[in-house]
Amino acid sequence: MVKAMLFIDGSWLYHVRPYLLNLDGRQDFELDYRSLPLLVKNHLEEQMGSKVDMVRTYYFGTIAVNKPGHDNVREKQFYEMLNKRCAYNTEIYEFDFKNKETGRRENCLEVGLSTAAMSQAFQPGAFDIACILAGDLDYQPLIRHLRNMGKRVVLVGVKGANGFYPVHPRLLEETNLFDFPPVYIDEHLGKLQYQRTESTRVCDSCGKEELTTFTSEWFYCKNCRDEYKQLRSRQMEGGPAIQ
Ligand SMILES: [Zn+2]
Fold it and tell me: Quick check: helix, strand or coil at residue 207?
């Protein structure tokens, strides 16, 4: 069976998220990360007229460190969710705000994604089709090298509208970059809507049961979350932390 791997530039996806959220006034839209690889798989199967095995999904993301007044616990929970509930392989790079003064705030994301895709491409039989969820021109060399190795490549992008076109036009205009028409996330939002279901969970801190739609690995009840928030805001103000 034809094997595909999905490589997600999480920083780019994060950048286009507000656009997806507001599309058609869908304020309640939440992306179901488990459906994303499935959407790409179905697209490829339609294009090829045969079964495709989506063997792995990689997600490359960043996490802010040393950012004054910022608590990165939600980012950590998000990556944990991708890891444990969606079976994504995550590679997370630090975005260090300590170096802000020198203007050096780059992270390793694009090189990280490209290196992972190339090293997988060199494993015999690892995959036939690379699915690149990104929009930056920086990936052009990666795509060319993958295709030189005989891999096929598909772009997973966002079509955009009204002056917001997050896929670099040169990625779309240049010939010999992609082997299939792109999959546009914004054309399939209905299939990517996360369905929240309520369940009773036990607070990992105080042991109280609460009805919730939270799906994170660890669960804290509303009381414990509020207490934590207050504690954090006192710490941010430089006040004494409660032991
Ligand atoms: Zn609690």
Answer: coil
Alpha carbon dihedral 104, 119, 77, 232, in 10-degree steps, equals -20
pLDDT, tens only, 48-97: 999 999 999 999 999 988 888 888 888 999 999 999 999 999 999 988 88
Q: How far is the CA of 202 from the centre of ligand 1 (A)?
A: 8
- Which pLDDT tens digit goes with each residue over 126-176? 999 999 999 999 999 999 999 999 999 999 999 998 888 999 999 999 888
> In this structure, which amino acid lies at residue 70?
H
10 Cα–ligand 1 center, Å: 31
pTM equals 0.83
The two three-digit tokens of residue 89, written as one number: 């392989």
For ion ligand 1, residues whose CB falls within 5 Å: 203, 205-206, 208, 221, 224
Q: How far is the CA of 227 from the centre of ligand 1 (A)?
A: 9
Domains observed in the chain = 2-192 (3.40.50.1010), 199-236 (no CATH)
- Closest Cα partner for 10 from 83, 99, 85, 103? 83
